[in-house]
Design brief:
The chain is built from nine helices and no strands. By secondary structure, the chain is mostly helical.
Length: about 260
Amino acid sequence: MTIRADGSRPASVVEAVALPVLTGLAVFALWQFGTSSFGVSEVLLPPPTAIAARFRDLLPTLLVHTGATAGEIALASGVALGGGAILAGLLTLSPGLYGALMPTIVLFQIIPKIALAPLFVFWLGIGSPSRLVFAIFLSFFPVLVSTAAGLQLAGSEAVRLCRSLGATRWQILRDVRIPSAAEHFFSGAKVTVTLAVIGVIASEFISAKQGLGYFILLASSRADTSAVFAALTMLCIIGLGFYLCVLAAERAVLRALYG
């Protein structure tokens, strides 16, 4: 049996896949049983079978809205990940810049950024730019802070050795700090893609005429609860897809770095 460096063992297939699936099935079974047994109105909480049937019926419409939402999520995530990593590298190369900007970055982390969504509509209008910029703003900080912390925590002995051999700050960043910060970057990336989903949906509640957020708002106004849950199901599929993409990239990069 393989043992990790921290003494733990990797999860088996049963632990990693079967247990979560079985737990989910148990939750859905209890949900179905509870709504059927207690006569819960479908307007309040439809059973999973009703949601599945509604999802099947609405699938063509949901796919149209999904295309608009997924495209904005992908663009916002890409810009946030790239911009956050680049700015983290610049902050690491310049200690003065790090000291000047990091307190402000931490302050922005504290602000309830979701409350600023109407301001982005006011500044940029009701089109796609306001949704994209807000989603980037919402999802940018986790990957920036995580990557910057990883770059700062790179092995001090390796950094000192490189400096003693005449390596430049850029060479140290490229050859020592970036490989050491890879895990930190991907930890932040997993949060970033999740927040990008939230940012796009929140913006679609305010300013969109297409997308899953708009569809959810429209279905809610009609008290079509099963349609809302169908859209939420599609949204979960999208979010899981982006998360799995980050997870696959993480495994590929870490395998390339560490074997």
